[in-house]
Write a structure and sequence with these properties.
Helices cover 35% and strands 13% of the residues. It is α/β, with parallel strands linked by helices. Helix 4 crosses helix 7 (247-253), helix 9 (289-296) packs antiparallel against helix 10 and helix 9 (289-296) packs across helix 12.
Length: 387
Amino acid sequence: MSHHPGPAASQQAVPSARVWVVDAYRAGEQTQLRALAEALELPWERKTLRYRKQEIRTNLFRGRDLRGVDLAHSDPLTPPWPDLVLSSGMRNEPVCRWIRDQSGDRTRIVFVGRLWADPEHFDLVITTPQYRVPERPNVLRNDLPLHRVQPDTLARAAEHWAPRLAHLPRPFITVNLGGDSGPYAFGRHAAERLVRDAVTLARTRGGSLLVSSSARTRPVAIDAFAAQDELPMQLYRWQRDDPDNPYLGFLALADELIVTADSVSMLSEAYATGRPVHMFDLGRGRFSMRHDMLIAAGEADRAKEVVKQDAGQKTDLTAGALAYRALMRWGWKHLSRDISRVHLQLIRSGKVAWLGEPHPGSQAHQSSDMQRALARVRALLEDTASV
């Protein structure tokens, strides 16, 4: 259990509100919850839970109890009850609703990301297009996930890393590598294409590459970059809990960014820099991200053109990726996500471009996603205070 006081000087509509973060169990959702909690500038308390592996009844059938929680190894959920709960993840849905019941329906629940229950069970849902949450008045659909990459964070990272990268010629092309995700695989063929295209862009600009992998990156992908010797490059292989991870520094110093389009979180953080962001398509032909995006847009003829253009090009296929495609097409929608909807929104809004296609240029360094989320959450707190 952690306590996090907000800035003492901040003036908020409900300065005495009690906030709990019933923490997520996936890293991306944890990041979003912390970003939102910190941006509220109110004291907040984190509740870390452990779950019973065999208990799924409460989760699947939208319960409102603690049967899925291993109470002996979890932070206590006891009064005084919070005014606001921020949370994410299927296992936490019944927990949050139980907390609201204990408070006499006074606690407001803000849920982030994917939902399993109907949105009507929550006061506010903050989500993004890939999760296909139904349209409701209490659903806020942002273009990208919330994140903690702020101007001051980038400034500190740039100050720290600039001397260590001073030997490399500018401009810097930062390349952030994800990995296999849903219907897409990131293997040898994609890695070879990405190296080729990144080198081409950096050579055209006359600069260097700053390349970093992530927890999901296969060795074959980062090895492909390690083997290139055509351009100056700083290469980082991801390590768990590494205090010297240069990810933020590479973001902060980037003049342009290339992000593998499997990672919506990395796209969100790259966009926050205000530099041009190029999405890299992991697939080719009918297995490409561009093809899926056009299908989602209802542009079947243009999707066929992509297949023709990519004819003869190799793509990475895995049993897991093919199974996920089948699940997306024929399975229960709750069990899958469709990131082509995010790609479509980003391209239509001019925020990013596919690597190799014309880019609309730099953007404002912060999107309005967080500000919209904060406005909605603060309105909930004001309503609670007036009751």
